[in-house]
Structures are given as C-alpha cells and as structure tokens.
Amino acid sequence: MERTRSWFGRRRRRKARGEGGGGGGEEGEGEKVVVDGSEIRELVEDREAFGMFAESKFRELDADGDGRLSVRELQPAVEGIGAALGLPARGSSPNADHIYSEAISELTHGKKEEVSRTEFQEVLSDILLGMAAGLKRDPIVILRIDGEDLRDFVDSPRYEPEAAAIFSKIGSEDMSLRQCLLAALQLLNVDNGMPPASDPWVAENIIEPALQKLPAGQLEQPASQDIFLEQLKKLLSNIAERLQEQPVIVAHTENTFDGSCVKRLLDNKFELDKLLDSVWKDVLIEHKNKGSRECLIAALDKMADAAGLPPYGAVNQVDAVVNEALKTVNADERTAVDEAGFKKLLTDILRAVMMQLNRQPIFVSNSTVVHEPLFSSSAILSSPPVKSSPRKPLSFQN
C-alpha cells in the first residue's frame, strides 16, 4: 500500500488496482487521507517556525490593528483550524460545533473578550497540541468517493444478502419503491462506497438525478423484495456514474469507547494523582461549588483526553453513561467538598463509567461531506514561508 505524507500529518493511502478495477489491495481501502496530527506537533515543537507562524496569523487576524484579538476576530482562526483538519463547517455538526466552542473558550480563557499577542501564541500552542493529541488517538479519515467502491459493492457477492437485510429492515406494504430506495440509501455508508445520503448537496446532485433514470411509474408502486433488489442495484450503479463525474469528499471518524483507556488511567496511580491535582487547581479557580454536577462535568472534560473519552456534549451515548455515573455519586445533591472528597468523587465517577463501557462498549461512526476545497489555505493553518520551500497541498489526482 502506498503511503505518502503531506500537510499536518495527512497520510495518503491508495488501494492497488489492476486493469478493470480488480487487482490487489485491501478490501474497502480505497483512496484516503489520514489526518493524525503529527505535523501539527512538528510545527509547534519548532519554536522559531511556530513563533513566526503565530505572529503571521495574529497580524492576519487583527483586522483593526489594535494589537489585541476580539472573539469576533478569533472566529476565523477557530474555523480555519477545523477546516484544515477536515472538520465539518460550523453549524453543520454538533460534534464539530462543540470543538469550535471549546477552542474559542480556550483562546479567551472562558471569560475574556479579547486576547493579547502573547496570550494568542501561548493558547494557540496549547490548542494545536491538544488537537494533535486527539488526532493521534482518533485520526480523521478523508475519503474521496468517486463511485469505484460503490460499483465494486454492487458487483460483489456481498450485494444481495446486504440488500435483502436492508429490505427486511425498512420494507413495508405501505411504502412505495421510491421510499424504500431512499430509506435504503440512508443505511448504506462509506464502507459501501456511498457518501452520506442525508447531505442536501448529495441528495440534490447525486441521488435525485440517479433516481430520475429509473422507471417513474414503478417508483410510486409498492415494492416486493425482488423488485427492490433489482432497482436498488440500478440506482446504485447510476449513483456510481454520478460520483465518477462529481466525486464527493467525506470526513469520516470511527471511535469505540470500551472503558479500556479509563482503566489504564485508573491503574496508573501516579498519572491519575497528577491529573487530579491539576484538575483540582483549575476547578478551584473556576467554581466555588466544587461538588456540583456542573463542576464535576467540567472536571471530567479536563480529564477526557487522558481517559479516552469525548468531551461532554459531543457523543450522546457516552453522555448517557456519564449521567448514570453521576447519579451513583448523587452529584445533583452535592454541595461543597474538600480536595480529598473532590478527587474521590471524580475517581468513583470514572470507575462507574469504566464499568458501564466495559459491559456495553459504544461504537460511534460519523461521515460528513466536506463542501469547501479540502486543502485550501485557511485562516490559521496555512503556513507562512518561514523555512524551506512551502509544502504543497495534497492532491487526490492519480
């Protein structure tokens, strides 16, 4: 498998294919870019390059030239970080919006209306290193979906049993063939070579034109399983043709939360005590009611990376587990606690989270269409020419 490196830890992977689409390579590997954060770390660790980088960005963002950045001026910086890392645009994904809000909060320390040049450089370093750590643990995979994998799926022995399973899940005498087909597309994903069917652009520019090639009269009739299998295959072939003409770029993430990272943290007493000390100092400043539910959630968010958990509010299923763990310590009824009591509360909550996730792991998969040019220069991560010749954005062209 070919792997080449590009901006900010992106690794290009291509499936080797012989003539006619056959050949070697791993099933479903396709063409992808893995964003793992390694080059973000390289930039931040090069003090001279990072200093010039941060200064260039500060001047670029300081629209009024007053030597300070307001929250309004910081907004392009945060959105630029997300765009360059393959995150969905602000407002299109609750998970991404949570990351954007956290980044703004870090830049403004949660309460400031503006930051100085020195504060910007210090906090930008922390944000980028935090993102790099998160990407190392949970890389974002950028996929160029061009119809090839979808054609492979339609022509493979997998198609009929998977399509039949989909029909048994969504098929109904009250549904027209059109409704069945649209429901089926929602259940297919990037593993099948299908971009997110829920995306409005994909629906309008890929799916609807492909549907128009099917018999209009038949689309409004009830569908038997045989008709469904036949027409779904035709529809997917039509979609593959559209994707060949208009490939779709998708940012894809997969995470399994099984409690193993929480267990490693709890088993490492030195690391756990060090982290609890740090959290106690931070929370002591930010909250007076140190045993409250809100305070405990804020503290857990500060421990999330070390515990391999998402920030509270980012993944509903994990939030539910945390809520149950909070109930076990009666978090809603707590008032102030001392340092030892606070640390014990957090440890008990983490242990309860670990046990729940160990019993019932949570798998989360998310695919989002990237509508902007994927590797265009952004407000924050487009590097100034401070070293050798500038890196070129990764191209998906053969």
TrEMBL record:
| The keyword Iron is annotated on this UniProt entry | no
Q: Which domain of life is it from?
A: Eukaryota
Keyword vocabulary terms for this entry: Calcium
- Which PROSITE patterns does this one have? EF_HAND_1 (PS00018), EF_HAND_2 (PS50222)
Query: Record's InterPro entries?
Result: EF-hand-dom_pair, EF_Hand_1_Ca_BS, EF_hand_dom
- Keyword Calcium, does the record have it? yes
The residues covered by the EF-hand domain are 58-84
Enumerate the GO terms in the molecular function aspect: calcium ion binding
Looking at the record, which segments are called Disordered?
Answer: 1-32
Protein name as it appears in the record: EF-hand domain-containing protein
Q: Which organism is it from?
A: Oryza rufipogon (Brownbeard rice)
